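Task 17 of the worksheet. Students: predict the tertiary structure of the chain below and write it out as structure tokens. Keep your answer in the requested format; marks are given for formatting as well as content.
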Amino acid sequence: MQIGLSSYCYEQLKRKGGFSNFDAIDHAVKTGYDHIEFSGLGTDDDENSADLAKQLREHAQAKNIRISAFLIAADFLNNQEETTRVKKLVDIAAALGAKMMRHDATWGAQGKKINYKEAIEAIAPKIREVSEYAATKGIQTMTENHGYFIQDSYRMEYLIEKVNHPNYGILADIGNFLCADESPIIAVDRVAPYTIHVHVKDFLFKNGAEPHPGDSWFKSRGGNHLRGTIVGHGIVPVAQCINILKSAGYEGDISLEFEGPEDVLFAIESGYKYLSAICNK
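Model answer:
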């Protein structure tokens, strides 16, 4: 397994200003990461995105770090032109030199009741069309377990079965299963056969029967309290989940994803040391 990180880790610094995706590449290299993935590029203009993607690819090549994936938001259930839009973003992933692209499936029906099976059956052909197009570019497509609506491992498994395309798989975020109140150990074991990329994040946890803890905490789907933290500092059984993936034959990349309130650079550097100790056993 090669250890990388998501550009999303640097969101705190980007929001403050003066920190760019080029700076993210430099810091990732300095810390020792093998690859970096980009969670959007910060522009909605396709032409400018393509130019920026090429510049980032060239900068990464000069720094001798691989760009592993491109991550974008999507909703195939509620947006009629989503298939066309996401195909265009496959082209941006190609310009980056990424070999994988994550897109969302749906965040749930807007203004009407629909169960997850009905939603998946409606969007599966659209997702398959995107994956078929991406295959012509040498890019694998995947959906991550987040967004509450299609987040549980059994829902992700149903999505894979209905899309039914060899170029499509799961980005398994081992921490995100807690957002659907599911054990990461059970969930990772279920999705391991379909996993083509892995996110590692960590959470602090408080029972939903307790008062809301305050800033930086959010609720799981079932009402428990979660807060992002430095990988290795929370309750996510990171080492156990990685061992489950290894036992299932997974040999791909893993990416750190930090979204806590702690100091960003310290969290990223600490996370690298923690993951290196686990993955290099």
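Marker's comment: The chain has one domain: 3-279. The chain has nine helices and eleven strands.
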